[in-house]
Amino acid sequence: KRRLPDRNPFYPVTGESYGAYAVMCISILIFTVGIVGNIAIMCIVCHNYYMRSISNSLLANLALWDFVVLFFCLPLVIFHELTKDWLLGEFSCKIIPYIEVASLGVSTFTLCALCIDRFRAASNVQLYYEMIENCISTAAKLTVIWLGALLLALPELLIRQLVREELEPPEVIPCEHCVIRISTALPDTLYVLGLTYNSARLWWYFGCYFCLPTLFTIISSVVTARKIRKAERTSVRGNRKQIQLESQMNCIVVALAILYGFCIIPENISNIVSVYMATGVPRRTLDILHLVSQMMLFFKSAVTPVLLLVLCRPFSKAFLDCCCCCFEECGPPKSSEPNSDDNDQDGTTELELSPYSTVVRRDPSTFPIAGTHC
């Protein structure tokens, strides 16, 4: 059979080529911002002693999954959109939806865990800041999040198939589509599981990955805010800064939930249209809607670390310190500054009291200065 020439999405210049250029530019921007931001969050948490709390471990875990989604899924999705071929064939058709759904599970459970941790902190601010979360406890919580997300996403591997669509005339290059179709070659048990999951997928997706984190975050944040206001009325002067930082962290968790909910809405719309209105909607429209839903997922993975770096002063300070060291723009040596010791002490104290850090009332000189190991 004669091999058809490879498709060039950028030439000749047509309406579709303009769309290809737009998709390429947007994806490069999302990829660059997301990779840099998520690596920064992970490095900040790993390299700072005062940032190794359960909340920061959860945020670093979320950054790790966002990095995986951007690094592995985004290039393959864009390659398929431009060439209409799956780079790794059947494997990429199955693994990309699996990773995407697993990342939604990680985001959902992480938001819930952050809400629980914030409620625990608001219930007893002084006690919370005098205890350390040991590594075993943190690893156990992260393991539960990983196992829950990975297991709940496993049925996605059963319902995907790669279909090659032959077009007319024969000179036109055929397209490959990754469709929801359960293979009859599966064992009976897996085949029934795939059918059951496929029939309930729309509402399971909507309930578990949208309603659960949204409603849980709203309810928990309201209760936590009431606890914080109560603590403000009964607190002594020394605890007020801790309470203010707790309020800030509670607001940031709400912001993360709003971003997550906003970016997951297109996926739910795409699922509803595909299930209930697929016969009356052109195939190209369905493909565009699916692409938009995937791009919004990548957008969420890229904007989440930016949101943390902008809203959280300890994160932004550590990030700027690292950039300053890497580019050798730190200015004159600290020893030449008359108030350098005071400034360093203030920065460390702020990190110690931060809701993103675990605090022990010890001499800060026994530990490294809060900052990255650039």
TrEMBL record:
BP terms from Gene Ontology: adenylate cyclase-inhibiting G protein-coupled receptor signaling pathway; positive regulation of MAPK cascade
The UniProt record lists the keyword Transmembrane: yes
Chain segments carrying region Disordered: 333-357
Record organism: Sinocyclocheilus anshuiensis
Protein name per the record: Prosaposin receptor GPR37-like
GO cellular component: cell projection; plasma membrane; receptor complex
Source taxon at top rank: Eukaryota
Limits of the G-protein coupled receptors family 1 profile domain: 37-308
Lineage of the species this protein comes from: Eukaryota, Metazoa, Chordata, Craniata, Vertebrata
CDD domains linked: 7tmA_GPR37
Membrane association type: Multi-pass membrane protein
Subcellular location, principal: membrane
